[in-house]
Specification:
Elements: E1 3-9, E2 15-16, E3 21-30, E4 34-36, E5 39-49, H1 62-65, E6 69-79, E7 82-84, E8 87-96, E9 109-110, E10 114-124, E11 133-141, E12 155-159, E13 176-182, E14 186-188, E15 193-202, E16 206-221, E17 224-239, E18 247-252, E19 263-264, E20 268-280, E21 285-295
Parallel strand pairs: 2-11, 14-21
Antiparallel strand pairs: 1-3, 3-8, 4-7, 5-6, 5-10, 9-10, 10-11, 12-13, 13-15, 15-18, 16-17, 16-20, 19-20, 20-21
Length: 297
């Protein structure tokens, strides 16, 4: 006998804040009446930490600090054992998003080594011969907006061969001068990162100018920690040998889920940076790094 189980939330965007009610319905569709041994619903918020391959085996103490951290967990019985009539059945539910003790609901974040996820899971127990049914549904939690006003701090930058830090042979680097500014490095997550860049001169033709958004995830404890930087997105802002002296706009929208307000806790940190990358025709790669502080207002 075919039966489908689904979780439908009332909010189409599935975004909730701490203290709100997660409400919706459990939808059951079956052709004939269905016998079951109870329907339960579980809400769980977890932080999953993972060590990168370079950190495995380095610190013994790490293995205790990378266990999943439970932020919230609650369970309710939606329906007692009984029979569900044929056709479409909707069972409403409500869960308050309240933490126990001094725990904080961090914002939903999908990273590489740090994952913060909130899920609803519905289980329907059935007799021995019939398979139990289960359905999961992720919802998104946004952290509470900060009260303080964000004052943008513009950053002016100049990139020349002399400002480069990690160049092995400075004499081999062609001469160039790039000026620019970022309108703010303490950014509001819902607003784009903006600024401009001007190539004043360059001895070697430019191949491409790119903006690279990077996540810096730190997992660990007092004995030591593993810090890993990985790319989230890369946007090309100029192609080919651009006109010298012409302002090139910098504009980057922060992607949902893969980014969250800058977060620092005892076991992990999530930070963000942006790189301005200039690729020259002789394949020299010039990168200028700017740490970002993200917040929600």
């Amino acid at each position: 006998m075919s039966v489908t189980l689904d979780i439908r939330l009332k909010r189409a965007n599935k975004v909730y804040h701490e203290g709100e009610l997660v409400a919706g319905v459990i939808l059951l569709v079956c052709k004939e009446p269905l016998q079951h041994h109870g329907v339960s619903l579980n809400l769980e918020g977890l932080v999953n930490l993972q060590l990168s391959s370079k950190s495995v085996g380095v610190f013994e103490a790490f293995y205790n600090s990378v266990k999943p951290i439970q932020l919230i967990s609650s369970n309710i019985e939606v329906a007692k054992a009984g029979k569900i009539p044929g056709g479409k059945t909707e069972i409403p539910f409500e869960f308050p998003l309240n933490t126990k003790g001094n725990k904080v609901l961090y914002e939903t974040y999908h990273g590489v080594f740090v994952n913060i996820q909130y899920t609803l899971r519905c289980d329907m127990k059935r007799s021995l011969l019939a398979k139990d049914l289960s359905r999961s549904c992720e919802f998104i939690v946004h952290s509470q907006p900060q009260k303080a006003k964000v004052v943008p701090t513009p950053v002016n930058f100049t990139i020349t061969p002399d400002t480069l830090q990690n160049s092995r042979e400075r004499s081999a680097v062609p001469k160039f001068l790039v000026r620019g500014k970022l309108d703010a490095t303490n950014c509001v997550i819902s607003q784009p990162l903006t600024g401009e860049l001007v190539v004043e001169n360059s001895d070697v033709p430019i191949k491409s100018i790119e903006l690279q958004l990077v996540r810096v995830e730190t997992c660990g404890c007092a004995e030591g920690y593993a810090r890993d930087a990985t790319e989230i997105q890369n946007i090309q802002i100029a192609e080919g040998d651009v006109c010298h002296g012409l302002p090139i706009p910098i504009y980057m929208v922060f992607p949902r889920l893969f980014i969250c307000p800058t977060l620092e806790t005892t076991n992990f940190k999530v930070e963000f940076e942006v790189n301005v990358v200039m690729v020259l025709h002789d394949d020299h790669l010039i990168t200028e790094n700017f740490p970002l502080k993200l917040c929600r207002v």
